[in-house]
Amino acid sequence: MIAHTDNLSAFFTSGPATPQLSGTMKALSLKQPYAWLIANGYLRVDDRTWGTQYRGPMLIHASKGLYESYYDYLRDSTDIPLPDKDKLEYGGIVGVANLLLCCQPGNMPANISREQRVHFGGVHDEYFGFLFEAATPLPLLPCRGKLGIFEINVDALLAAPPPPQAELL
Asked: pTM for the complete prediction?
Protein backbone atom coordinates (compact mmCIF):
# COMPACT_ATOMS: atom_id res chain seq x y z
CA MET A 1 0.00 0.00 0.00
CA ILE A 2 1.32 3.47 -0.87
CA ALA A 3 1.58 5.82 2.07
CA HIS A 4 -0.37 9.06 1.99
CA THR A 5 2.84 11.11 1.98
CA ASP A 6 4.31 9.34 -1.08
CA ASN A 7 1.99 11.23 -3.42
CA LEU A 8 2.73 14.61 -1.90
CA SER A 9 6.25 14.53 -0.53
CA ALA A 10 7.86 15.46 -3.84
CA PHE A 11 5.76 18.61 -3.93
CA PHE A 12 6.68 19.55 -0.37
CA THR A 13 10.44 19.81 -0.90
CA SER A 14 12.43 22.82 -1.95
CA GLY A 15 13.03 23.50 -5.59
CA PRO A 16 14.39 26.60 -7.28
CA ALA A 17 11.08 28.50 -7.08
CA THR A 18 9.24 26.52 -4.39
CA PRO A 19 9.73 27.35 -0.71
CA GLN A 20 10.32 24.52 1.74
CA LEU A 21 6.87 23.36 2.77
CA SER A 22 7.23 21.95 6.24
CA GLY A 23 6.56 22.88 9.82
CA THR A 24 3.89 25.45 10.58
CA MET A 25 2.94 27.69 7.66
CA LYS A 26 0.51 30.54 7.07
CA ALA A 27 -2.55 29.83 4.93
CA LEU A 28 -5.38 31.77 3.34
CA SER A 29 -8.71 30.16 2.46
CA LEU A 30 -10.52 31.25 -0.70
CA LYS A 31 -13.59 30.07 -2.54
CA GLN A 32 -13.16 28.55 -5.97
CA PRO A 33 -12.26 29.63 -8.60
CA TYR A 34 -10.12 32.18 -6.71
CA ALA A 35 -8.01 29.48 -5.03
CA TRP A 36 -7.32 27.79 -8.39
CA LEU A 37 -6.57 31.12 -10.10
CA ILE A 38 -4.01 32.14 -7.45
CA ALA A 39 -2.41 28.68 -7.16
CA ASN A 40 -1.99 28.54 -10.94
CA GLY A 41 -0.68 32.10 -11.33
CA TYR A 42 -3.66 33.59 -13.19
CA LEU A 43 -4.68 35.90 -10.35
CA ARG A 44 -1.87 37.91 -8.77
CA VAL A 45 -3.88 40.17 -6.42
CA ASP A 46 -6.74 39.18 -4.14
CA ASP A 47 -8.57 41.98 -2.35
CA ARG A 48 -9.68 41.91 1.27
CA THR A 49 -11.31 44.38 3.65
CA TRP A 50 -8.39 43.80 6.04
CA GLY A 51 -4.63 43.87 5.71
CA THR A 52 -1.70 41.96 7.16
CA GLN A 53 1.92 42.66 8.02
CA TYR A 54 2.89 39.09 7.07
CA ARG A 55 5.08 38.56 4.00
CA GLY A 56 6.36 35.23 2.78
CA PRO A 57 5.12 31.77 1.77
CA MET A 58 1.36 31.32 1.97
CA LEU A 59 -0.53 28.07 1.50
CA ILE A 60 -3.58 28.53 -0.72
CA HIS A 61 -6.60 26.73 0.76
CA ALA A 62 -9.70 26.06 -1.33
CA SER A 63 -12.82 26.29 0.81
CA LYS A 64 -15.88 24.23 0.01
CA GLY A 65 -17.59 27.14 -1.75
CA LEU A 66 -17.80 28.26 -5.37
CA TYR A 67 -18.55 31.73 -6.75
CA GLU A 68 -20.61 30.40 -9.63
CA SER A 69 -21.26 33.73 -11.34
CA TYR A 70 -17.55 34.61 -11.39
CA TYR A 71 -16.68 31.10 -12.59
CA ASP A 72 -19.26 31.36 -15.38
CA TYR A 73 -17.98 34.82 -16.34
CA LEU A 74 -14.40 33.53 -16.59
CA ARG A 75 -15.47 30.51 -18.68
CA ASP A 76 -17.54 32.66 -21.04
CA SER A 77 -15.30 35.75 -21.31
CA THR A 78 -11.66 34.65 -20.99
CA ASP A 79 -9.29 32.06 -22.37
CA ILE A 80 -8.15 30.94 -18.89
CA PRO A 81 -8.13 27.11 -18.96
CA LEU A 82 -10.33 26.66 -15.87
CA PRO A 83 -11.17 23.06 -15.00
CA ASP A 84 -14.84 22.10 -15.08
CA LYS A 85 -16.69 22.94 -11.87
CA ASP A 86 -16.74 19.29 -10.80
CA LYS A 87 -12.98 19.01 -11.39
CA LEU A 88 -12.04 21.93 -9.11
CA GLU A 89 -10.73 20.79 -5.75
CA TYR A 90 -12.38 21.84 -2.50
CA GLY A 91 -11.66 21.53 1.20
CA GLY A 92 -7.88 21.65 1.36
CA ILE A 93 -4.54 23.07 0.28
CA VAL A 94 -4.29 23.45 -3.50
CA GLY A 95 -1.15 25.57 -3.85
CA VAL A 96 1.49 27.81 -2.38
CA ALA A 97 2.48 31.35 -3.32
CA ASN A 98 4.69 34.05 -1.91
CA LEU A 99 2.79 36.98 -0.39
CA LEU A 100 4.97 39.84 -1.58
CA LEU A 101 2.91 42.86 -0.60
CA CYS A 102 -0.30 43.85 1.16
CA CYS A 103 -1.50 47.43 0.84
CA GLN A 104 -4.32 49.70 -0.21
CA PRO A 105 -4.07 50.96 -3.81
CA GLY A 106 -3.38 54.54 -2.69
CA ASN A 107 -0.55 53.45 -0.40
CA MET A 108 1.58 51.38 -2.76
CA PRO A 109 5.33 51.68 -2.23
CA ALA A 110 7.14 53.65 -4.91
CA ASN A 111 9.55 50.80 -5.57
CA ILE A 112 7.03 48.23 -6.87
CA SER A 113 7.17 47.52 -10.60
CA ARG A 114 4.72 48.80 -13.15
CA GLU A 115 3.58 45.22 -13.79
CA GLN A 116 2.86 44.69 -10.09
CA ARG A 117 1.07 48.05 -9.89
CA VAL A 118 -1.26 47.06 -12.76
CA HIS A 119 -2.65 44.12 -10.77
CA PHE A 120 -4.07 46.51 -8.16
CA GLY A 121 -6.40 48.08 -10.77
CA GLY A 122 -9.47 46.19 -9.57
CA VAL A 123 -8.89 46.73 -5.85
CA HIS A 124 -11.30 49.21 -4.21
CA ASP A 125 -9.50 52.17 -2.58
CA GLU A 126 -10.63 51.13 0.92
CA TYR A 127 -9.61 47.48 0.50
CA PHE A 128 -6.22 45.81 0.75
CA GLY A 129 -4.62 44.03 -2.18
CA PHE A 130 -2.63 40.88 -1.41
CA LEU A 131 0.03 40.61 -4.14
CA PHE A 132 1.17 37.03 -4.76
CA GLU A 133 4.12 35.80 -6.82
CA ALA A 134 5.81 32.47 -7.57
CA ALA A 135 2.56 30.50 -7.30
CA THR A 136 2.76 26.72 -7.52
CA PRO A 137 -0.26 24.40 -7.68
CA LEU A 138 -0.13 21.36 -5.39
CA PRO A 139 -2.09 18.12 -5.22
CA LEU A 140 -5.06 18.50 -2.88
CA LEU A 141 -4.10 18.15 0.76
CA PRO A 142 -7.45 17.91 2.59
CA CYS A 143 -7.81 20.04 5.72
CA ARG A 144 -10.18 22.52 7.30
CA GLY A 145 -9.93 26.19 6.49
CA LYS A 146 -10.53 29.21 8.67
CA LEU A 147 -11.32 32.88 8.25
CA GLY A 148 -8.39 35.24 7.91
CA ILE A 149 -4.79 34.08 7.78
CA PHE A 150 -4.36 30.92 9.80
CA GLU A 151 -1.62 28.41 10.51
CA ILE A 152 -1.32 24.83 9.28
CA ASN A 153 1.16 22.25 10.53
CA VAL A 154 2.22 20.78 7.19
CA ASP A 155 4.22 17.94 8.75
CA ALA A 156 1.21 16.77 10.78
CA LEU A 157 -1.02 16.90 7.70
CA LEU A 158 1.43 14.87 5.64
CA ALA A 159 1.78 12.30 8.43
CA ALA A 160 -1.98 11.85 8.83
CA PRO A 161 -3.75 9.10 6.90
CA PRO A 162 -6.01 10.34 4.09
CA PRO A 163 -9.54 11.24 5.25
CA PRO A 164 -11.28 7.97 4.25
CA GLN A 165 -8.69 5.93 6.20
CA ALA A 166 -8.82 8.32 9.17
CA GLU A 167 -12.57 7.78 9.44
CA LEU A 168 -12.05 4.01 9.63
CA LEU A 169 -9.50 4.18 12.46
From this structure: 0.81
